[in-house]
Amino acid sequence: MKTISSLLASLVIIFFFSSACSQGLQNKGTVPRAEKAVVASETNSITTGADQIEEYLPYLKGKRVGMVVNPTSIIGNTPSVDSLKSLGVDIVRIFGPEHGFRGDASAGVKVDDSIDPKTGIEVVSLYGKNNKPTKEQLQDIDLMIFDIQDVGARFYTYTITMHRVMEACADNGVELMILDRPNPNGYLVDGPILDMSLKSGIGIHPVPVAHGMTVGEYAHMINGEGWLANKAQCKIRVVKIKNYTHDTPYVLPVAPSPNLNTPQSILLYPTLCLFEGTIISQGRGTHFPFTVLGNPDLKGKYAFSFTPVGIKGMSETPLHQNQACYGMDLREYDIANLRKSRQLNLKWLMEMYQAYPAKEKFFDFKQSNQMGNFNKLAGTTLLKEQIIAGKTEDEIRQSWEPALNQYKQTRKKYLLYP
């Protein structure tokens, strides 16, 4: 039987061989499936928590492990489940969030429990019959690992999954190890703080639209602010990222979900997801979602157009399916503008509302595959009212205070990185 040292050495060789092969394929214009949409980061000095195997593998020895993972959970170019299993880690159970363990379920689609065909490990869906591990599912687990890439927006559901996992672990005396990953929008802390009367499946914490934390930092805030049920405390162990700051640009090596499939979409997401609560398409049903905006009724007001269609695994029944939508093409928008302002871009929302002819329909419509109503996405009823009333951007931003500044001060207590 191999020693841990020899297994680690083997994995390092595999990692560099895989990286070399991947680079060769990219040079020929072909990108491996797991990296089709989001190319590897050029910030080679950054090392994720998962990639620091030597920091946590000895701690896993002799423990029965559960893993909360999805396709972003990689060590080098290999799924972390596969890597750790090959190193002799006793993985008892896998827990998959929205989009599923293998990432092939569309947004909002319920996912069933299954057996992973590659490893034979039981896969429990946390986006199906239950949204957090049950007592029975944790009774034979000594340690849970959370290793999922977040993108730094309140309505992105993975921090909500982490909250529920923390709650289950706290209730059942199970420690949670978080393999931390960079927040690609880590520089951005902006938007209205969630009004807790609007708490929903796309927002459960009093944080702004863009929270500016890694999942490791966010977990410390959940504990520190007493947000778990009955103010329970989850025992957490964070494997920190090396050479990361919140201002460090970071391009994800794997798409975090089917409709965030380019670096541009990930950086525009905190702003453009607000349009999910409007009659404006954000490009779901195209191969470039969250980089375009449009509606059939804007023909003649914008020259650019796109036509949403059903795409399996991304958007089977998108808004305005098979209709030409006219609006904005943001695929070449200079993200440096967002980084410089450190703000969400409200001008696009204000412009689209003014351009849309039937304003009474802009916010108030029913579409079964939408994330929810605008107020739940914004986290406040005020923003919708302010857009309708024609308030200026300065007036809107002023209404976010002093709560936003208070959040920024609270956030500082939990930061693990500059």
Automatic annotation (TrEMBL):
Phosphoprotein listed as a keyword: no
Domain Peptidoglycan beta-N-acetylmuramidase NamZ C-terminal intervals: 267-417
Domain Peptidoglycan beta-N-acetylmuramidase NamZ N-terminal residues, every copy: 65-263
Superkingdom classification of source: Bacteria
Keyword terms of this UniProt record: Signal
MF terms (GO), sorted A to Z: peptidoglycan beta-N-acetylmuramidase activity
Signal sequence annotation: 1-22
Designated name of the protein: DUF1343 domain-containing protein
